[in-house]
# Entry
Amino acid sequence: MDAAEQSRFVLSLPVPEVSDIIKRFPAELRPRGNALLDQVVKNEAAKLARIDQLIPLLDQGNPHKGKELFFAEKSKCATCHQINSEGKQVGPNLSNIGANRAPRDLLESIIFPSSTIVRDYESFNVVLTDGRVLTGLIIREDSDNLDLQQQTGKIDRLLKEDIEEVVPNTVSIMPNGLEKTLTEAELADVIAYLMTLKKPQLAQKP
Ligand code: HEC
# Structure
């Protein structure tokens, strides 16, 4: 990792972790560490402020428009999420999401995907011996192979002997910047739609 990559990595961590890392810095690096910590604290505050600003708009969301948008090319949600058997399964199935999450949590998951990552969807960087780095979810592993599912849904079967290192990634594979693809009103529509989804998950039929 070069210095810029290192800073970007540290900035993606939660405040307590950064503070822990910085405590272990040698004395001469403390000032740089403290500057990073300040920035993480500021980023965190900016996120909270942005969420507080959007919350009041959620009441105006239209679930019908939200549904259309969810399955539209523009939002790409359905290229990764399944709702009632429609859509792909790169990310979690959202058929019952309205029963499990408050609107604020949905908003945070959509505009700041890496703030909290759903368990089992933690992504990994896989460094190959030829120097390439692939990022994705590890969906299967045995003594010889590792199956890595990338953002597009594509699954690569990698040979363990071609793998140099597997490093956990603190960044969600859910894309950043969805906030820029969707208008505030559209964001409210999608969340209104997700809040209507309260279907207990049935066991899959054979
Ligand atoms: C490239 C794939 C991808 C796309 C596109 C995508 N997501 Fe996600 N999404 C994920 C993954 C993977 C997770 C689980 C990891 C995480 O929590 O960030 C997730 C998590 C979520 C969660 C949190 C679920 C929970 O149980 O808390 C919500 C809500 C969500 N996505 C909604 C959306 C919406 C709405 C869109 C479209 C605007 C969208 N996603 C587009 C991959 C994607």
Observations:
- The CA atoms of residues 84 and 202 lie 10 Å apart.
